[in-house]
Design brief:
about 400 residues; alpha/beta; 17 helices; 13 strands
Amino acid sequence: MSGQGPRSSVTILTSSYPRRDGDMAGHFVARLARELFDPSTTTVLRPWDHTTESAGDPPFSLFGETVIRLPCGPDVFYGAGAPVTLQRNLAIPRAVTALFRFLHTSSTHVPPDSNLVAHWMLPAGLAAWRLSRTKACRYQLVVHGSDAVLLDKLPLGHRLVERLCLDAEEVIAVSETVKERLLHRHKPVIRRKLVQNIRVCPMGVDRPMLPGESYEQSILWVGRMHEGKGGSLLLDALERLPDVFWPCHWLGDGPLMARWQKRADRLPGEHHFHGCLPNQEVLTFLARRPLVVFTSLEAEGQPVSLMEAMAHGCPVMVPGCQPFLQMIQDQRGAMVYTAADAEDLARTLRLALSRPETLEALGRVAHQRARAFSWPELTPRLRPPWSDRDAS
């Protein structure tokens, strides 16, 4: 690909795409592309790995695609979470190689003067910044959370954040928590400049009509089964409730799945570990409107599973920390327990399970609150700043 890129064309740079049907972040990126951009003038630049590529139509089949053949699978950046993976030095050489491959391929395939949308600061944001310097491209940067956590832990990560954010046309942070993570290490003068270029906009979900059937008396946990997601906290709480027999469904997989399953087998009641399910099957579980319990022990950019649960009218139970409190708005939208406190989670669970009518009311309020991050509400806010200028 060479020559002058028309200003109406868009190239999406992303390291996240539907690696499998249950990949919520990847589905969001694909959905955003379909909602905002014309397939005839949009190209998606993304990684590919034969161990994770799904069968059938590619996720961006309507768009032109340039596939980067990375020397490693996406689990270099995902797995137990990018910060954990890289801190343990498990994949640094491969990750660095993959980063340079992304930079080289984007430089080769993106025309000069292009419009870019970069999801995640590494590697896509860095590639977009480099293209803005070498090929006069302009870019919108979308920061999802794990990348902000990673750069915050690196010695000079804040300097890279400064450059990527200040040179972007605009930066979208998916929550106030992510925005603060981008800002907090900077001196006041730089912080003021960054604030002017960063705006908060959550990612979108579908919000179905709320049916009138009763709520299912069961507990649902959804997430990647590693230490940061805190599934062991729910097990600790259930050990304190030997007389509670609501069935508990666990959706997801990860390095701790076998260990958690062994612990659950020793508890009273039914525990079903379903593994990583296709997204439609996850939504089928949510449509039953169980009590969905969130136990994350790490800072999350934006818990998409919470958004999905609220959009389906599920009663939810969340730790009393950000961004969960920001998303529920107040305690009429969820039951809140002290973060990382198994004793308080057990007390809150006992109260919830003894008052099913309260759960039904919470589910209705959650469904109303989910309007704020439904696709019809958010699509206009996610449109890149140059789209209106080009249209005029």
